[in-house]
Specification:
The structure is a homotetramer. Chain A is 75% helix and 0% strand. The first copy, chain A, contains twelve helices and no strands. In chain A, α5 crosses α8. The structure holds a DNA duplex. Chains A, B, C, D: Pfam families: TetR_N (PF00440). Chains A, B, C, D: GO terms for molecular function: DNA binding.
DNA sequence: GATGAATGAGAGTTCATTCAT
DNA sequence: TATGAATGAACTCTCATTCAT
C-alpha cells in the first residue's frame, strides 16, 4: 500500500465505522444533542461523576427534556451503550475483519490490516468504548450485554476463521482458538491503553510501525535465537 | 516444579504480595476498618458512585470519623491508592521479578514464573488495582503518580534487564525494549480481564496451563508452519 | 315493603342518583374518559397526590389534552366537584327526600326510607363525595360552594319540613331544627365511615337492619328503662 | 358543676390530653420544631400538598435535617401520626372515659361529661386528628394502625362497659353494643365537623348547651309525642 | 479519637403547563 | 380536537463536609 492509499483508506474506515446511533431513528435534533453531550461527559467524568444538569447544559436543553426522553440517567447510559455494543458485535462489523483476512495478500499483511482495522474502529469510537469498558465494571446489565453479543456473535465467527487458518497452516495448531483470539485482542487493547496512559512516550513513533511490530510479535513471538 | 512445590509457592507469594497499608501502622483499628470498607466499596461502585455514608456504615464508624482521618473523600482515595502504586512500582516488588529471571532455569520456565508471579501480584490486590486502573482515567493526579512511579522506576529497571536478555540471545534484538515489555504486560492483563468478563469460560482450564500457553505465545508467536 | 320491592327500589334509586356530569353532554368521549380517570385517581390519592400525567395515562389521552379542556389541574377538580355539589344540593335531589317524608306511611318507616335513600345517594357517588369531603378541607372555594348550596338551598327546605313535623308531633319540639337535622346526617355519615374503616366488622350484618337500627336510635335514643 | 368548676376542669383536661410526643424522648429542640411545623403544615395543606422545604423553613432548620431524622417525608408523617393513634387508643386515655362513667352522678350528667371529655380530647389535638382522618383515607398503613389500636384496644373496653350499663338499665338492651358506641361517636364527630364546615352558624351557641343537646338526643331520640 | 447533629449545595426526578403542529 | 416536544420550577432526597461535645 502506498502512503497515499493508506491515508485514504484510514479516512474511509473512520467514517464508515462510526458506531452511530442515528441511522434508523426519528430522533429530534435535541435528542441527538443530548446523546452527544452525554457521550462526551460520561467519557470525561464517568457515569457517576457526571450530572444530568451538566449534560443538559452542554446539550443546550432543559434538564427535564433528558428525562422525558430517557426516563432516568441510567436509561440515558443504556441508550448510549447498548446499541454501541450491539453494533461492535454486529455481523456487519465482524465480517469486515473476515473480509480483510480473505484478501489475496501475504498473511502477515492481512494480520497487520486487521489489527489496524480494529484499532481504527476503536479509535473512532474511543469515547463510547471507554464508557463501555469502565461502566461494564459497575453495571452488570452492561456486562451481560457484552457477554451476549460478543460471546455469542463475535466469538463463534472468529473461532471458525481461526480454525480455518490453523488448517491452512497460517496459525499454530497446538493452541486453542480462544487463546489465539485473546492474544490478538490483548495486544491491540494493550497498545491503545499504553498510548493513553503514556501519551508522550508513543507520540513519536508512527502508528503504522507500531502496528507492524505488534503483528511481528504476535506472529513470531519475542523469543531470541537462543530459544530455538 | 512439582505440584506440591507449586502450591506452596503460590501461597507464599500471595501472602507476601499484599500491597498493604498497615506496615507503618500507627493506624488504629477504626482506621483499618475504614480503609478496608473503602477498598471494597470503591472497587464495587467506583469512586464517584460510592458515598462516604456507605463506607462509614460498612466500617462501623461514624461518618465524621472518616473526615477526621482523611479530611476529604478524595483524601481517602489517595491514601488508598498512592501507597499501592508506590508499592507495586517499588524496587522491592520490581526486583522480585528480576530475581526470578536470574534463576538458573531454562528461559522458558523463568518467563512462566515471572508471568505467574505478576498475575498473582495483581490477583492478590485485584480490588486496589481495579480502583487504580479505573480512577486513573478520571483523576490526573493518579495518572501522574503512575507515570512517575512506573515510568521512572519500573521501566528503566526492566528495560535494562530486557537489553541484557537481548544480548544473551533470549529475546529478539530487532524490536525495541518497550514493545517487548508492553507485550508481556498486555498478555497478562488481557488474560485477567478476560477472566473477569467471561468468568465461566475460563473456569474450567487450569491457571498453570493458561500461563504456560501465554508464555508459549509470547515466546514463539501465533504463526503457523506456513509463515516460516 | 317486600323483599322484592326493596331490591327493585334500590336499583332504581342507584341509577337515578348518579350525580353525573354527562347530562348536558356535549362532552366528547375523550373528555368523559378524562373525567372518569380523574375521579378514580383523585379519590384514590387525593388531589395533590395525583398527577396529571397519571390521569392522562389512565384516560388514554395526551397530557396536553387535559389542559386544552380544563386549563389547569384545579380546573379539572372544580369541573368534577362543583356540579356534583350543585346536584346533591339541588332542589330536585332535596325534594326527593321530602317526597319520601310525605308518603302515606307510619313516620318510622318514612324515616327509614329517607335514611336509606340518602345512604344510597352517597354510596352511588362515593368517590366524588370522598373527593368533596377531603378537598373541601383544603380548598376554601369548595367550602364556600358547599356552604352556599347546602346552607342556602338544602337547609331552609329541610328546616321547614322539620318544623312541620314538629308541629305534627312527629319530632320533638324542645330542640332546634339544626340539631335534629345534624343528628340524622351524623348518624348516616357515621355509619358509612365506620363501614369504610372497619369493613369486615360490618360485612356480616344486613344493610336494611343497620338502617332500621339507626332509625330506632334516632327516634328513641339509646337510653334504657332506668332513665325514665 | 358550677360555672367556675367547669372552666377549671376544661383547662385541666386540655392540658392533660395533649397527645404529645415528647414524653419519653430525647428529641432535640430542632426535632421538636420540625414535628410542630409538620403538624401545622400537614393539617393545613394535607400531606401531599405540603413540601418538606416549607416545613423546614417554618421549623427554622435546613431541609436536610428533616431527612437525617425521619429518612423520608412519609417517615415524618408516620412519626407524627402513629404515636398519636397509639395514645388516643391507649388504655390510659380510654380509662379516663370509663372513670367519668363510674362517677356518682345521674347517668345523664355522666353522659354529658363523657361527650365533653371526648370533644375536648379531639379539640386539643384537632390538627393531628385532622391529619389522621384525612391521611388514613390514602395510606393503608395508617388505616391498619387505627384498626389495630382502636378495634383491639378501645372497642373491647368500651363494649364491656356498655354491656354493664345495659345490665344496669341505663342503656337499652335491644340494640347491639357496637351500634350504641357508634352512635355516640357519630354524634360527637358530626358536631365537630359541622362546627368546622359551618363555623359561623355554631359560633353563637354555647358549647355546653350543644353538648347537653347531643346527650339529650342520644338518650331520648328525636321522636315526638306522636310516636309513643 | 470519635461522634451525633446539622447543613448548603446539588443530585436525579416529577410537576403542571405551553406551544407549534 | 388532539398531541409530542419541551420546559421552569419545584420536588424529595443525598452528598460531602463541619462543628460542638
Amino acid at each position: 500500500m502506498t502512503e497515499k492509499d493508506w491515508e485514504k483508506w484510514v479516512r474511509m474506515i473512520a467514517d464508515e465505522y462510526d458506531l452511530d446511533l442515528g441511522k434508523t431513528n426519528k430522533e429530534t435534533l435535541k435528542q441527538k444533542k443530548i446523546l452527544e453531550a452525554a457521550i462526551h461527559i460520561f467519557a470525561e467524568k464517568g457515569f457517576s461523576g457526571s450530572s444530568t444538569s451538566e449534560i443538559a447544559e452542554r446539550a443546550g436543553v432543559a434538564e427535564a427534556t433528558i428525562f422525558k426522553h430517557y426516563r432516568t440517567k441510567k436509561g440515558l447510559l443504556l441508550r448510549l451503550v447498548i446499541p454501541a455494543i450491539a453494533k461492535v458485535a454486529s455481523p456487519w462489523i465482524t465480517r469486515s475483519a473476515l473480509k480483510i483476512l480473505e484478501q489475496d495478500k501475504p498473511f502477515r499483511e492481512r494480520v497487520e490490516d486487521v489489527i489496524l482495522d480494529r484499532v481504527l474502529l476503536i479509535e473512532t469510537n474511543w469515547k463510547k468504548i471507554k464508557i463501555i469498558l469502565v461502566e461494564s465494571l459497575f453495571h452488570p446489565e452492561l456486562r451481560e450485554a457484552i457477554q451476549t453479543h460478543v460471546a455469542k456473535s463475535v466469538f463463534p465467527v472468529m473461532s471458525e476463521k481461526i480454525k480455518q487458518l490453523q488448517a491452512e497452516g497460517e496459525l499454530r495448531r497446538d493452541l486453542p482458538d480462544y487463546v489465539l483470539l485473546r492474544s490478538v485482542i490483548s495486544m491491540a487493547i494493550g497498545y491503545l491503553l499504553a498510548r493513553n496512559v503514556f501519551p508522550e512516550q508513543l507520540a513519536q513513533s508512527e502508528e503504522k510501525d507500531e502496528i507492524s511490530m505488534i503483528a511481528e510479535v504476535l506472529l513470531k513471538g519475542v523469543g531470541g535465537s537462543h530459544g530455538d
